[in-house]
Write a structure and sequence with these properties.
The structure holds 2 protein chains of 2 kinds. Chain A is an all-beta fold. Chain A is 0% helix and 50% strand. In chain A, the strands form 2 sheets. In chain A, strands 2, 4, 5, 6, 9, 10 and 11 form a 7-stranded mixed beta sheet that branches. The chains are: A mainly beta, B mainly beta.
Chain lengths: 107, 120
C-alpha cells in the first residue's frame, strides 16, 4: 500500500492567516492526489483533485501544488468556515489511501 | 445534483454480517466507480473498496476476505456486505462516487454517513 503522511497533524491559526499543509507519499503518485475537508459530524468534501485542480464551488483561497511524492495544500487567507480537518488521498492505485489528517483550529 | 444516502442496521452483533445499501439519486449509477469508506470515531478515513457496475471490484487487502460489494442498476443502488464483524469494525460508513478523467480520480460526491456499532 502507498502510505500518505501529512504534516503537521494539527495547527492553530487566526482568521486571515496563510496556512500550509503538506502531504508526502511513500512512492511516486504522479499528480493523483486529492484534498478533502471534513467538518464535525459531516462527510468529507472534495476541495482539490489532480493535485492542483479546484473542485467546482470551492473558494479560490484554496490552492494545491506538487507532483511525485510531495504535495501542498495552501489556504491563502483563513476564514472562520475553514476550521476543519483536512485529508490528502492518493488515487494513483488501489487500495486508495488517506493521510492521517490535519486539524486546523482557532488560535 | 447527485445525492447518495446510506441505509442499514445501526447495530450489528459481533461475528455477524454488516449489510449497508447506498441509494444514488440525481444521476445514473452506470459509468462510475462507487466506493465505501469508513471512519472510526475520532480517527481517520479508511477506504474499504469500490465497484463498477458489477463488472469490476477492488477491495482493501486488509478487508478483502470479509467484504463483498454489488450493484443493483434497476434500483440505482449499491451495497456493502462485511462478514464476521468485530468491535474494530464500529465506525461511520460512507458511500461515495469516484469520478475519473485522463489525469484524475477523486471522490466527488459522498453520502452523509451512517454509524454502525458492533455489539458483543
Amino acid at each position: 500500500d502507498i502510505q500518505m503522511t501529512q504534516s503537521p497533524s494539527s495547527l492553530s491559526a487566526s482568521v486571515g492567516d496563510r496556512v500550509t499543509i503538506t502531504c508526502r507519499a511513500s512512492q511516486s503518485i504522479s499528480s493523483f492526489l486529492n484534498w478533502y475537508q471534513q467538518k464535525p459530524g459531516k462527510a468529507p468534501k472534495l476541495l482539490i483533485y489532480a493535485a492542483s485542480s479546484l473542485q467546482s464551488g470551492v473558494p479560490s483561497r484554496f490552492t494545491g501544488s506538487g507532483s511525485g511524492t510531495d504535495f501542498t495544500l495552501t489556504i491563502s487567507s483563513l476564514q472562520p468556515e475553514d476550521f476543519a480537518i483536512y485529508y490528502c488521498q492518493q488515487s494513483y492505485t488501489t487500495p486508495r489511501t488517506f493521510g492521517q489528517g490535519t486539524k486546523v483550529d482557532i488560535k | 445534483q447527485v445525492q447518495l444516502q446510506e441505509s442499514g442496521p445501526g447495530l450489528v452483533r459481533s461475528s455477524e454480517t454488516l449489510s449497508l445499501i447506498c441509494t444514488v439519486s440525481g444521476g445514473s449509477i452506470s459509468s462510475y466507480y462507487w466506493s465505501w469508506i469508513r471512519q472510526p470515531a475520532g480517527k481517520g478515513l479508511e477506504w474499504i473498496g469500490r465497484i463498477y457496475t458489477n463488472v469490476s471490484t477492488n477491495y482493501n487487502p486488509s478487508l478483502k476476505s470479509r467484504v463483498t460489494m454489488s450493484v443493483d442498476t434497476s434500483k440505482n443502488q449499491f451495497s456493502l456486505r462485511m462478514s464476521s464483524v468485530a468491535a474494530a469494525d464500529t465506525a461511520v460508513y460512507y458511500c461515495a462516487r469516484e469520478s475519473s478523467g485522463t489525469n484524475y480520480r477523486a471522490l466527488d460526491f459522498w453520502g452523509q454517513g451512517t454509524l454502525v456499532t458492533v455489539s458483543s
